[in-house]
Design a protein that fits this description.
mainly alpha; 20 helices
């Protein structure tokens, strides 16, 4: 399907809408840039912690297979949800209007934004710790709170520049990122080979629940990114269709996730410490390599946070509270400090982060299911952009069918927390589909007139 011309929208409907929430008029990311943005955006210290959380349960081979399965599911899910944004040029918060309503979007928006803010704070603290260690080694300067504050401000300023700035930052960083990840894995495997062998020699592993729970953990890191895939795909050029997009996502996400997850698994197994800054600042053989690795850790947080943890909640704030892009990004930065990330990086928090990821996946899986059923099955991929921006039209208010569906799906997933994302999909999708079909003949958006705009 060709990209829809944005001139089809009635100017009166968008005259008071922030330009960042209107359909894109300029597609700035080709295949290489798009792959580079995801490669840089997925270098998450959270993945390091997910790997650390697998100690004692899986063998190295099983951990690699679990990560691979998680990444393949992520790639397919990103392509599915992102097709709407790519076709119509609309962001996540506008896409939600067709299934949740103008008012109802606040619920999935908050559920998407909160985990992003937590990860933003967590990764900013880790990155600041790496920078602080560099300053300590080179100049004897040691003041982590100050470095953390300045580092957070830097990331917010980069995000304010929008996707033009993000594009070039990610393009420049991707080669450097892969090279350093390979080097870090090599150092871990050679320097701690004996310790690693001792730890894993007694682990039999399992293909049961712990294995599938591991796929959920790695999938869960990106479950936030999945549902706002349109925020990224709306900037991709016309040739990046769903199959090509899924291939790009796989090529970009899989190697980075494998490297980071394995490094976290092996380093924690060898040293007992899940803090990458502490590990790499004390185990390198040369000052130069120590500085290089620590700078990489810091830089990786920037590429991930700007793309995945600032942009989505900023769009949510713009949609829900009608604030401008600049103020929304600043507010995201402030909220990331409020979550007290210094408490999340302790050794005791690795298992807790796994649980946190599985818990919020229980809510994001249902949102994914509602969005997929709504776009592909109920609307057959056809939307009227004028109605998507008409506050008095069929999408006004709250679509209670979507709310009921995600509540039921979330409750079902909480019974099997380890597989929360997977478990939620079928019950949510079925409830949403049958409620929408049942309510089709009643009055108002929240029941059925939404089908009119696909005729």
């Amino acid at each position: 399907m060709a990209i829809v011309e944005n001139t089809n929208i009635n100017p009166e409907l968008v005259k008071n809408v922030d330009p960042d929430l209107q359909p894109t008029t300029k597609r700035i990311m080709g295949s290489v840039s798009y792959a580079a943005s995801f490669m840089g955006g997925c270098v998450s210290i959270g993945t390091f912690s997910m790997g650390a959380g697998l100690i004692g349960e899986l063998t190295v081979v099983q951990a690699v297979i679990a990560m691979t399965i998680g990444c393949l599911v992520i790639a397919v899910a990103l392509a599915m949800i992102g097709e709407c944004g790519h076709t119509y040029g609309i962001p996540f918060t506008v896409q939600l209007r067709s299934s949740f309503g103008f008012t109802g979007v606040k619920i999935p928006g908050v559920l998407r934004g909160l985990p992003a803010i937590v990860w933003f704070g967590y990764q900013s603290w880790v990155g600041a710790g790496a920078i602080n260690s560099c300053f300590d080694i080179l100049f004897g300067f040691d003041n982590l709170p100050v470095i953390y504050g300045l580092f957070t401000i830097l990331q917010v300023l980069l995000a304010i520049k929008g996707f033009e700035g993000i594009k070039w930052m990610e393009n420049i960083s991707c080669i450097f990122i892969i090279a350093i990840l390979i080097y870090m894995l090599y150092v871990v495997n050679t320097q701690f080979s004996t310790e690693i062998g001792d730890v894993f020699s007694g682990i039999e592993g399992t293909w049961g629940m712990p294995f599938w729970a591991a796929t959920t953990s790695f999938l869960g890191i990106y479950s936030t990114m999945i549902i706002n895939a349109s925020d990224y795909s709306r900037n991709a050029t016309d040739d990046i269709k769903p199959v090509k997009a899924a291939s790009i996502y796989t090529i970009a996400i899989l190697p980075v996730t494998l490297f980071m997850g394995l490094i976290g698994l092996l380093v924690t197994a060898a040293t007992g410490n899940s803090d990458p800054v502490v590990v790499f600042s004390t185990t390198m053989d040369s000052t130069f390599l120590t500085i290089l690795t620590l700078l990489f850790i810091a830089f990786a947080q920037v590429t991930t946070n700007v793309l995945n943890n600032i942009v989505p909640p900023a769009y949510v704030l713009m949609e829900s509270f009608k604030v401008k892009w600049t103020y929304a990004t600043i507010l995201v930065g402030i909220l990331s400090v409020v979550v007290m990330p210094w408490k999340l990086v302790t050794a005791e928090s690795a298992a807790g982060l796994n649980l946190f990821t599985q818990f919020y996946s229980a809510f994001l899986g249902p949102i994914f299911a509602v969005m997929a059923v709504d776009f592909y099955i109920l609307r057959k991929k056809k939307l009227d952009l004028n109605r998507m921006y008409d506050k008095t039209g069929p999408y006004k208010g709250v679509n209670w069918a979507a709310i009921i569906a995600i509540v039921i799906g979330s409750i079902c997933s909480l019974f099997i927390m380890e597989l929360s994302w997977y478990v939620s999909l079928i019950p949510t999708g079925l409830v949403y589909y049958f409620l929408m079909k049942k309510m089709k003949s009643a009055e108002g958006f929240r029941v059925g007139t939404i089908f009119e705009d696909e005729k």
